[in-house]
Amino acid sequence: MNQRLQNEPASRLRIVSLGGVDEIGKNMTVFEYEDDIVVVDCGSIFPKEDMLGIDLVIPDVSYLAAKKKNVRGYLFTHGHEDHIGATPYILRQVPAPLFGTKLTLALVDLKLKEHRLQGIPMQVVQPRDEVRLGKFTAKFIHVSHSIAGACAIALTCPAGTVLVSGDFKIDYTPIDGQVTDLQTLASLGEKGVLAMLCESTNVERPGHTISERKIGTTFDNMFRDAKGRVIVAMFASNIHRMQMVVDSAIRYGRRVCFIGRSMVNVSRVAMQIGELHVPEECMVDVDSLDQYPDEELLVMTTGSQGEPMAGLTRMAYAEHRKLQIRPSDMVIISATPIPGNEKYISRVINQLYRCGAQVVYEAMAEVHVSGHARQEELKLMHALVKPKYFIPVHGEYRMLWQHAELAESMGMNSKDIIIPEIGQVIEMNAEGCYLTDQVPTGGILVDGLGIGDVGNVVLRDRKHLSQDGLIIVVMAINRDECKLVSGPDIISRGFIYVRENEDIIENVRDVVRQILADSNLAGEEWPNLKNRIKDDLHRYIYEKIKRNPMILPIILDI
Questions:
Q1: Phi/psi class of residue 271: alpha, beta or left (left: φ > 0; alpha: ψ in -120 to 50)?
Q2: CA-closest candidate to residue 446, choices 111, 119, 31, 147
Q3: What are the φ/ψ torsions at residue 484 (nearest 5 degrees)?
Q4: Which residues 6+ apart lie within 8 Å of 331 measured at CB?
Q5: Residue 221, C-beta contacts closer than 8 angstroms, at least 6 positions apart
Q6: What distance in Å separates the CA atoms of residue 71 and residue 76, rounded to the nearest whole number?
Q7: Which residue from 139, 19, 30 is spatially nearest to 426, judged by alpha carbons?
Q8: Minimal CA–CA distance to 391: which of 58, 136, 29, 100?
Q9: Which of 99, 194, 197, 474 is most buried as measured by Cβ atoms within 10 A of its Cβ?
Q10: SS3 sequence, 439-502?
Q11: Is 75 strand, coil or helix?
């Protein structure tokens, strides 16, 4: 008899965060009940400063890969990179159907096509739709955010209902007119919610997040006063703001040009599915910009975070093939720096001023509002949902801690609040909530087409090379005759300027010659000889000039 006895407790629901806790980004949460697994979001994160040459960081999904036959599907809360950016990489390891709103899946599909990944089933859902995935039922609930199609997700299994808030704010006057579905959230709270995973990005900020509509007046005023081109840098995925900027531009007789690969791709997809409306006669190709007066042009570009290869950065440093910054330009940076990116955007702003442009950014005018809930909005979410257990997510540790304190201030027992660690397994049902084992986790580094082939050793070498440079010692040895045939030749990169330091290079040669003279070339193992060359050269160079370059001996046996 398969039916559970009436008094038998339900199996425990397992929740594992593979990313998105103690960090902002890389959001990915695994929900497991018996033999069924669903995954909410599949995001990436910007590399840290010391991750030289790394393009992005994605979650380690070795736990999922070991159970991939149990994965019933991926559910997406919305289409920002920190929630969908890892999808093409993860799906190669753990394929499963994808579920999300129209714009979200359109952006995911764009990524899959770029990676030539085909055959992944996708199902577009509408807010309040429910999908069945094994023993899970997932309900999508519309929330306001800085991108269209954002949803909270209520996951129900025999253990109970868990609400994943996704990124949200309570905006009573959103651009698209669709307010957060407080009615459905309240209905869930009345029925009983086992646990809530709620974002913590703005928990440190009191009050309410202002409405996106508020900055529309700012853009109108700027377009009215601008004498030359207006260049707006922003996240390509912020379709609502993009629409607002386009509307202001058209209102003041400007044509629209999109620059930057992601800006062009996302705007095209958004227009195809009806989320962005730009009259065809108002659009201008980048190659045609010089055919129109400056006062008739709006350029929308990437680079709001100061990324080196993004459109705005290349324009500022005169590296863009099609567009250079002019003194008559007004440049609007409509974004807040992501933590860690402050100095990059600061450099770009300084360079824009050097070009003579008028620069407007958040510190000067209301050109950006957050898409994340502040304290009063978070309190409203807690009051409506009334979860039995609470798990703060999407934030650095201090944010998770402060969100836990906010939940306590709303009357929750501290024993029912869990501040999660990445990879920590949380098990729960109506009888209790427990911390159990730890699964393998971490960040997988993506460098070009390489996924996970760059680790700590390679990063350490890159850092060493960037700080101290490289010396290559090349020599040819005849082992049979036990003599040096040619060399040692010294090649230096990033260490010293050879032409002005020939005495140091010659002394390095002398040190190597002395090592060879003291060695039994006939019987010496080459690895031992190379290690002795490295050690002695390190010692000599540090004593002479207090530098520590990477040393690479190359021995040719002829």
A1: alpha
A2: 111
A3: -80, 120
A4: 231, 232, 233, 312, 325, 352, 357, 358, 359, 360
A5: none
A6: 15
A7: 30
A8: 29
A9: 197
A10: CCCCEEEEECCEECCCCHHHHHHHHHHHHHCEEEEEEEEECCCCEEEEEEEEEEECCCCHHHCH
A11: strand
Q: Which two tokens stand for residue 126?
A: 């509408």
Give every strand in the sheet of 483-493, ordered side by side. Answer: 483-493, 470-478, 550-557
Q: 496, 495, 528, 536: which is closest to 512 by C-alpha?
A: 536
User: Tens-of-pLDDT digits for all 558 residues of the chain?
Assistant: 233 434 455 689 999 999 999 988 899 999 999 999 999 999 998 776 666 566 778 898 999 999 999 999 999 999 999 999 999 999 999 999 999 999 999 999 999 998 899 999 999 999 999 999 999 999 999 999 988 899 999 999 999 999 999 999 999 988 888 899 999 999 999 999 999 999 999 999 999 998 888 888 888 999 998 999 999 999 888 888 899 999 999 999 999 999 988 899 999 999 999 989 999 999 999 989 989 999 999 999 988 887 777 889 899 998 888 898 999 999 999 888 776 678 888 999 999 999 999 999 877 677 888 889 999 999 999 999 999 999 999 999 999 999 999 999 999 999 999 999 999 999 999 899 989 989 988 777 776 555 655 556 665 666 666 677 888 889 888 877 777 778 788 888 877 766 667 778 888 888 888 888 777 776 677 788 888 888 888 888 888 878 888 888 888 877
Please give the Cα distance from 319 to 154 (Å, whole number).
47
Q: What is the CA radius of gyration of the chain?
A: 29
Cis ω before 488 (30° cut-off from 0): yes
Question: Which residue reads 């019933």 in tokens?
Answer: 72
CA distances to 479, 482, 484 from 524, in Å? 9, 10, 13
Query: Helices (DSSP H) in 37-195: which residue ranges?
Result: 62-66, 81-84, 87-93, 102-114, 182-191
Give the CA distances from residue 55 to residues 41, 309, 454, in Å, rounded to whole numbers and listed in that order.
20, 11, 11
Closest to 238 (Cα-Cα) out of 267, 197, 196 = 267
Q: Alpha-carbon distance 180 to 191, whole Å?
A: 19
Quote the CA–CA distance of 218 and 522 in Å, as a whole number.
79
CA distances from 299 to 249, 264, 547 (A): 10, 11, 47
| Structure letter (DSSP) for residue 546 | S
- pTM of the shown model: 0.82
Could you tell me the two tokens for 436?
């159990």
Q: Which helix (H) or strand (E) holds 220?
A: helix 216-225
φ, ψ at 366 (rounded to 5°): -80, 80
Structure tokens that stand for 219 in this block = 């853009």
Calpha distance 508→527 (Å, rounded): 19
Tokens encoding 447: 């460098």
